[in-house]
Hints:
- The chain is an all-beta fold.
- 1% of the residues lie in helices and 50% in strands.
- It is globular and about 45 Å long.
- The model has no long low-confidence stretch (mean pLDDT 95).
Amino acid sequence: MNETIATGLRLPSGLVALPDGRLTVVEMDASRRCLKLFDASGVPQELCRVGGRPMGIAVDGDGCFWVANGPENSLVRLSAQGRVLQVIEGSADGPFLHPNALAFGPDGLLYMTDSGIRLANLLEGGHIHPDFFKAAYNGCVYQIDPAEGRVIRVLAAGLLFASGIAFDADGLLYYSETLTGKIYRQVVGGRQEMFVQSMTSPAVNALRGPAGLAFDRSGMLYCAMYGLGEISMVDAEGKMAGHIRTDGARPANIAFTVDGKHLLVSEQENGVVEKITAPRPGLPLHMPPIS
Length: 291
């Protein structure tokens, strides 16, 4: 049984462990649409109602929060007090469709996946549309200048529900394509290559597959397998190296604690954050100062 450190959440998604020991998480549900903070004892504080359907979160070196999928499918920067500082709505090619996950790179730039489908085309009556697999997806990976608040370039396009994103210790960029089970990597701006096929068959009948990503210091990739109730582990050679069961079936995102000793999982079936002892120490996130 994994330890539960935050309960009563409604569709928890992106999460980040903060340098001061607190945890920040966003809730996607229409009744919340918020960013919450939890102290070391698990006491929650709702920082602000972001709006939209917040999915991903990153934290910069100024202590500000970047939230993917704010109002009108935007990327929002919030102050440490929850005040809106910046809103980015799209690129030169058009507006974002469904911003999903965020990660700062070693170059100080911000990277974001966009699942590539508007929510209205994905949901029907509050549930996943039965023909979701046949929808027209254009999942993308964006490179963003956080200081100027603009998209620099599109690093990947045409993905079937782009989801998790992470950097390894060598600065290679990884991102997941949920519906096919593929996890890709690239030298930033270089050719995309498939790193691992994490599922034996595509997610045709139920929304499931690789979502949030995180690395440990040995180069092991951890991937939340949404709908499958586990964290898959992939070694540096792209080989499946093990699985960690989650208490609920819908792990969405993962993050290591600041000390690297535990893996945190936002789990949507039970509305909790699970805490799991990490097999190896986690790789620290990049949190560059912006101002």
